[in-house]
Design goal:
- By secondary structure, the protein is an alpha/beta fold.
- The protein has 3 domains: 66 residues, Nucleic acid-binding proteins (OB fold (Dihydrolipoamide Acetyltransferase, E2P)), CATH 2.40.50.140; 202 residues, Rossmann fold; 130 residues, OB fold (Dihydrolipoamide Acetyltransferase, E2P), CATH 2.40.50.1070.
- Helices cover 25% and strands 29% of the residues.
- It contains 11 helices and 21 strands.
- The strands form 3 sheets. Strands 6-20-21-19-18-15-16-17 form an 8-stranded mixed β-sheet, sandwiched between helices. Strands 7, 8, 9, 10, 11, 12, 13 and 14 form an 8-stranded mixed β-sheet that branches. A 5-stranded mixed barrel has the order 1-2-3-5-4.
- The termini are far apart.
- The protein binds S-adenosylmethionine (SAM) and iron/sulfur cluster.
- The site of iron/sulfur cluster (SF4) has 11 residues, from loops.
- Catalyzes the formation of 5-methyl-uridine at position 1939 (m5U1939) in 23S rRNA.
- Belongs to the class I-like SAM-binding methyltransferase superfamily. RNA M5U methyltransferase family. RlmD subfamily.
- It is an enzyme of class 2 (transferase).
- Keywords: 4Fe-4S, Iron, Iron-sulfur, Metal-binding, Methyltransferase, rRNA processing, S-adenosyl-L-methionine, Transferase.
- Its EC number is 2.1.1.190.
Length: 469
């Protein structure tokens, strides 16, 4: 097929939508079995759609008219959401009822576990849900001076494009942050560095000394040194918006520093009496409301006892490690970033009042793992595993190897229980397949965590028990 034919558009086709994929595209099937993905369409709807792209087995189409509307269709709250030109690419599912969004994510999790791992969880965990709006305490806004239009844009990228969307409000960030979007445009527009500040990173939190005081940390990436005038403008902006705390980033992430002394940025885990200071570029969970429930649920599932040793793999700042250390007999947290490990050690000292058990943090690359290394880390009764998108392949593969040949590790015992928290159902499914089919575990439970409402991201958790225990 020629490129021209591949991209040809014709008159809109009338189609019946019977499913939704994780990108929130409606899926329809033609009589010859060919699949058509339709942006903006929902299951149960009869629609007209214009085909934009044709391949042998599938087509890509855009919704032009809805003839029969789904009962799950809702009015999007944000005016920047949609299929229109210039629409923001930050959300994908605002047109879909919340319960249906969660149901799709649950199905994606189950499908991945089954198709990629040949694993079926014995029970499904109730989805963890939190606020639908204002949940996103971390974000990376792009900044662009569009000379032709004489405006500075501060926002996310447009749908399927590298252009910055012209957003004036955003409903997934806290309302106080949404209200800063236009003032931030004016600020950058007034700066000498109008062309050389490509990004503002957001990290919301509280004052470590007073958790009732919000802190909005804004990290300004600047490609050239800032003039005295610009520094004064940033300070004036901070005075006009007292929760704002400016950080500057002249080069790589390790150059991030506070513009002026101010409150210490932190988040809290009140159930465990823990206050967690962090730097705005450190990894922290995007949604602090869900994080509190997630940590609480993970700990309940782990059920660490005072006589048990626990390892927290990919521990970051110690988000799970420190709460586990309020319950277990001994805890080891392992993490790849030296900077995060340094911070987790400081946080351990800061939380001595809450933490009871001996706790250690170690920095190591967990994408490389050997049986000897696993032996050195020692036997633990339970593991918590919370890897990045790539998953924890090296770790579970080593566990599987030791299970296949226990003679290589006399005296070492595999953990009885593993609680696995995942931000990518595909890598969770792959690792679950290894745990269940090669390492001697059962998948006793799995469920989704609605960490990112209205987006296609699927956060989930799964529990594995060593068979026969
Ligand atoms: C999803 S985060 C979880 C962090 C922590 N459990 C939390 O809840 O805040 C994944 C962590 O894995 C770390 N990481 C990424 N690649 C790694 C690697 N190759 N070895 C060890 N840690 C790694 C990241 O620095 C990050 O802290
Ligand atoms: S990310 Fe914000 S601005 Fe973009 S569509 Fe979602 S709510 Fe609207």
């Amino acid at each position: 097929m020629t490129k021209q034919a591949e991209q040809a558009t014709s008159a809109p086709d009338r189609l019946v939508v019977d499913a939704l994929d994780i990108e929130a595209q409606g899926v329809a099937r033609r009589e010859d079995g060919k699949v058509v993905f339709i942006e903006g369409a929902l299951p149960g709807e009869t629609v007209s759609a214009l085909v934009r792209r044709r391949k042998n087995n599938w087509e890509q189409a855009t919704l032009t008219e809805i003839h029969r509307e789904s009962s799950q269709r809702v009015k999007p709250r944000c005016p920047h959401f949609g299929l229109h030109e210039g629409a923001c690419g930050g959300c994908k599912m605002q047109h879909l009822d919340g319960a249906a969004q969660v149901a799709i994510k649950q199905r994606v999790l189950e499908d991945n576990l089954w198709h990629l791992g040949k694993v079926k969880a014995e029970t499904l965990l109730r989805p963890i849900e939190g606020p639908w709006w204002g949940y996103r305490w971390r974000a990376r806004f792009s900044v662009r001076h569009v000379r032709k239009k004489g405006v500075v844009l501060v926002g996310f990228h447009e749908r399927k494009s590298r252009y910055v969307a012209d957003i004036r409000e955003c409903h997934v960030v806290p309302p106080e942050v949404s209200a800063l979007l236009l003032p931030l445009r004016d600020l950058v527009g007034s700066m000498d560095a109008i062309e050389t500040c490509p990004q503002i990173e957001l990290a919301c939190g509280v004052d470590a000394a007073d958790a009732t005081r919000p802190v909005i940390a804004l990290v300004l990436r600047h490609l050239e040194p800032l003039s005295e005038g610009d520094l004064a403008r940033l300070r004036a902006f901070g005075q006009a918006h007292p929760a704002v705390q400016w950080w500057l980033q002249p080069k790589g992430p390790d150059t991030v520093h506070l513009l002026d002394a101010g409150p210490e940025l932190a988040y809290t885990l009140p159930e465990f009496g823990i206050v967690m200071p962090f730097r705005p570029t450190d990894f922290t969970q995007v949604n602090p409301f869900i994080n509190q429930v997630l940590v609480s649920r993970a700990l309940r599932l782990l059920d660490a006892r005072p006589n048990e040793r626990v390892i927290d793999w990919f521990c970051g700042l110690g988000n799970f490690t420190l709460p586990i250390a309020t319950q277990a007999g001994e805890v080891l947290g392992i993490e790849g970033s030296e900077a995060l490990v340094a911070r987790s050690r400081e946080n351990l000292v800061r939380n001595q009042g809450a933490v009871r058990s001996p706790t250690r943090f170690v920095a190591r690359n967990l994408f490389e793992m050997t049986p000897a290394q696993l032996l050195e880390d020692g036997t633990a009764d339970k593991w918590l595993v919370d890897p990045p998108r790539e998953g924890a392949f090296a770790l579970v593969k080593t566990l599987a190897d030791l299970h296949q040949d226990p003679t290589t590790a006399p005296g070492w015992r595999a953990p009885r229980r593993i609680v696995y928290v995942s931000c990518n159902p595909a890598t969770l499914a792959r690792d679950a397949g290894l745990l269940v089919h090669q390492a001697g575990y059962r998948c006793t439970a799995a469920g989704v965590v609605n960490m990112f409402p209205h987006t296609a991201h699927v956060e989930s958790m799964a529990v594995f028990e060593r068979s026969g225990e």
